[in-house]
Amino acid sequence: MIRELINFVDDLEEDYPEVFDLNKIPSPGLHLWVELDEEGNWKNSPPVEGVDYVIYDGKEKLTPKLQEAMQYEELGTRVGNTMNKVLDKKKQIFSCSPFVLNFKLKSYSNDKLEGIKEEKITRLLKFYFDNAIAICIPDDTAKLREQALAFKKTISEALKAISRIATTIYEKDGPSIEKPLIETFKDDFYINLYLRNVHLEDYRACHENYLKEKLFNDNKYNSTKEIDDATFGLSNFINGANSKKMFLEHKTASMHRGISGRITALDALALNKFELLLNSRVLPNPILPIFIDKNEFRNNSEIVRIFNNEGERKFSYPQLLKSIYEKDQQRVLSNYYLLNISRGVVNDFDFVSNFQYKLDEFVIDNLFRLRQKGEALQSIKLHTIFGFENIVVTKVFNNGLVREKQGQFSYNYFYDIDPNYISGGDEIANLILRFRKAFYDYIYKSRKQAITTTMFDEALLTSIISDLKHDEFKDGYHTKETSIKEKLNIWFSLYNKFSNHSKNRENMANTFKQLLEKAELVANDDNTLLDEQNVGEFLFVAGQVIYFLLSKSKASNPTHALLEPFLQKSGAPQLQNAIANAVNAYKHEISFYKDRFERLASQVLAFDTSENLKNYQRYLLAGYFAPSVIYKSNKQKEEQPEIINN
Amino acid sequence: MKTVISFDLYADMGFLKKPDINEKIYLTYNMLHKPCVLGILGAIAGLKGFTKNNEFPEYYTKLKDIPVGIKPIGKGCERGNFTKNVTTYTNTIGFANTDGNLIVSEQTLIHPAYRIFLSLDLGKEDEQILYDHIRQQEAVFIPYLGKNDYSAWWSKEDVKDENDNVLIQGVKEYDILQDDFNYDYKVETVFIKQKAVVESLVDENDDDDFSDNFQISDFGTYVYFEKLPTKYNEELYQYDYADFSLTDSRLKAGSLPPETLLHLQEKKSKQEFVVQLN
Question: How far apart are the first and last CA of chain A?
């Protein structure tokens, strides 16, 4: 993986060097330049706002003075995101340069270490500056060492001066109040001090020395004592040598001085740049396509450029691809690695041979006649793979894998799943955990084999049965009816779109229509019989009969959960017994439609098959939720119970 | 005497650890690579593995010069790429660590399978043993794909389904045909690319205008790329790498060094194809 990332950074440096300066802002808080006279005394005291110091609230537009502050701050930043590579052993000082001191207000004000405020920071200075001078300043530059030491001496005085800086607070409808500046800062604001006497080039040289020293995880593994570009060492990029966890070490290798894998300093530098790019949010996140080699057609910079051209409103990965395909309909994205990384953790890294953005003939028919505001809903055509994700995946997993909230989508392919926040609870949470990787591979890597028909069937069936169990009847509405019918529409419409047997698999949408027609014929004609070999027909008609019977229930909460016992029957005799019992229970309610009902019920109760009905549950569900042919026959006289969207 | 044989090595799962990162997750190579194949061959032949630091194991010193070719196969392989899942192990008993629980996530290959081509010199004792063991479907130590949880298997005879389709090819032996490769050819195995593969692909639609906007997919079905270990660095005892590719397209004559290519003919079926052994 790291070789691909190194190539990625190299390509960006060559084709889109501006990216390394994008989104940079100074840290929020105070930035103060200390200027010393020839004796090493603080010259610009007390400091003047706008000249000697500047305050940044983290939001305002960058002024030239703030940009200058950013330049100085950058030449003292640490390697990586953690405090493992800082020069202060107590890990309170963030900066890593003998000419920069940068710490959080939290470090200044908390009581974790001895002392308070200036006193506490001053106690850290000896180790910090000794370390910084030793690492960053070459032995032959005595002047820089003297300047660094003079800077160190002035810091205590400068911190006292900072604590005296006051600012005016304008309270709403109240008097203005003078307050110490520091007291107006949030805990995560920074105080930055820079030495103005030293030229930026010297800052840079010193910082490069720091980087060389700290780029590797630990210098004891280095191939050479002096570190240059070709020195091999232990990578620090999502990598470590934790001696307390020996099983994390690579043991089955001929280790050279303790480890079995090293990278060059130049590679380590590129990986550090990659981390900085991630931190500054100029790369699509968390999903980033990494094209192998720009000689193989694609240029990495294009994706990053499009991402950043959107200004503040950053594209998600699906939006990014949509933008690319809108510009060029014939575009083919192929041969790249897809990296999924968030908060420094790699979730997935895999090769994508050919990304298929557009979908052919993915149409969700409204087979179960869902209505909204009285109007039958239209079929939904899925044009792109992300349409599939936003509509199908969202619904199948009850908004738990892909979550839609006010038109915005969020995704949970790799993080923990909390069943308490998912409709359907543990059952759906388990379903997500089992299948989310397959859906991720199918959508983002175009792995067509990832979702098999078996998986698709199981996901839909489990999800529908979960809805059945959780259905409630409130104010004349079934709370899960719409959800169930949406899922049935998805299941039957996309029934033969997935791998394994798809060529031989029936077109369930057509089958459904045929079954409905057949059920109507059987209901209205004494001479039309069920096909003895067709278990699907039997179960579809059984579903119709069960729906009719359960609709007669006068229970206070006549939910669709009543269907579940019928679904659990594995043999025809058991199902027929259950239906017969239901007929017995509701016989007093059956009068109007007895001709149609009797025709259907008699054929269902007389049907003979030894098949395991659990393999055909979809037909029973289809029959139950399909428009009722029994009610339809008398619809002019009696209204069929309406389908209501919840 | 030199001979070329092939056998299909497969496992339910595999983990060919990349030494790139070790925090939170370990990643796997997708393609089997030569240092890994040599370890498997060592297990089959009964040669010793890693025992000392700064010293190569017996199997490596004895087998490293065997030219090896690898072709991904099987139901888990889609355009050269295998499905991967992340498996997380939690060890809470404290023997594996000294500071709390050990949680390791590994990217795992699902149904990895590879056809391995070997050019063996039967005049050498170890290679003769290897040849015999492979043909007899015997191994001295249990071969596995990356870790010993994932035992690897092969079959000396073809394994067929009820429709007579070959699921697993048995051990095959090949004749090497004389060839100077001065024509466009298709390579069955992964090969080390010398330059951008796109420059080597044969345009199957010669009549079409050749535009600057063409894509790899215009030519064949796919091209797969992976940087894979080729051997151990003798100074640092770590992998040396090369850029490998795999494609179902034909390559132009001269795209690959002819000395690395072999034109093989299977002894029984007389089927011919080209492989690259490294």
Answer: 48
* Beta-bridge partner residues of A259: A256
Assign 3-state DSSP to chain A and report helix, strand, coil percentages, each to 5. 45, 15, 40
Quote the pTM value.
Answer: 0.84
How far, rounded to the nearest angstrom, does the alpha carbon of residue A563 sit from its chain's CA centroid? 37
Q: Do A1 and B27 touch (CB under 8 A)?
A: yes
Residue of B51, B193, B237, B245 to mutate, testing the A interface (most A Cβ within 10 Å of its Cβ): B237
A571 contacts A613 by C-beta, under 8 angstroms? yes
Q: What is each CA distance from A570 to A459, A550, A573, A613, in whole angstroms?
A: 20, 20, 9, 5
Nearest beta carbon to residue B237 from set A239, A252, A254: A254
Instruction: Look at B24 and A114; give whichever has higher pLDDT.
Output: B24
CB pairs under 8 A between A and B: 150
B235 contacts on A by Cβ (under 8 Å): 256
d(CA A517, CA A513): 6
pLDDT at A166 over 50: yes
The minimum CA-CA distance between A362 and chain B, rounded to whole Å, is 22
Give the minimum alpha-carbon distance from A310 to chain B in angstroms, rounded to a whole number.
Answer: 25
Contact call for B97 and A244, based on CB within 8 A: yes
Q: Chain-centre distance of CA B247, in angstroms?
A: 14
- Residue-wise pLDDT for A433-474, tens only, equals 999 999 999 999 888 888 988 899 999 999 999 998 888 888
Where do we find the tokens 């997993």?
A: A397
Phi/psi at A96 (5° precision): -140, 60
Considering CB atoms only, which of A256, A346, A349 is closest to B237? A256
pLDDT-derived band at A500, boundaries 50, 70, 90: low
How many contiguous H segments (helices) and E segments (strands) does chain A have? 22, 19
- The DSSP 8-state label assigned to residue A377 in this structure reads P
Contact A153, A40 (CB under 8 A): yes
Residue B248 contacts A where some CB pair is shorter than 8 Å: no
Determine, for residues B22 and A248 on separate chains, whether the beta-carbon distance falls below 8 Å.
Answer: yes
What residues does B104 pair with on adjacent strands? Answer: B89
Least confident of A31-40, A341-350, A631-640, B16-25: A631-640
- pLDDT number for residue A503: 62
Question: Rg for chain A (alpha carbons), in Å?
Answer: 35
One-character DSSP codes across chain B:
-EEEEEEEEE-SEE--B-SS--SSEE-B-SS--HHHHHHHHHHHHT-----STTS--HHHHHHTTS-EEEEE-STTEETTEE-EEEEEEEE-SSTT-SSS-EEEEEEEEES-EEEEEEEEETTSHHHHHHHHHHHHT--SS--BSSSTTSB-B--SS-EE-TT--EEE---EEEEEEP----S-B-BSS-EE-SS-HHHHB--S-TTS---TT--GGGTSS-EEEEEEEEEE-TTT-SEEEEEEEEESS-B-TTSS-GGGEEEEEETTT--EEEEE--
Find chain A residues with C-beta within 8 A of B238's C-beta: 253, 256, 260-262
Match 């092939």 to its residue by tokens. Answer: B6
- Is the Cβ pair B24, A240 closer than 8 Å? no
Does B55 contact chain A (CB < 8 Å)? yes
Nearest to residue A132, comparing CAs of A103, A101, A97? A97
Q: Which of A1, A223, A295 sits opposite B21 (nearest CB)?
A: A1
- pLDDT band of A645, cuts 50, 70, 90: very low
Instruction: Give me the phi and psi of A629, to 5 degrees please.
Output: -75, -20
**ipTM score of the complex?**
0.87
Contact of A255 with chain B, judged by CB distance below 8 Å, is answered with yes
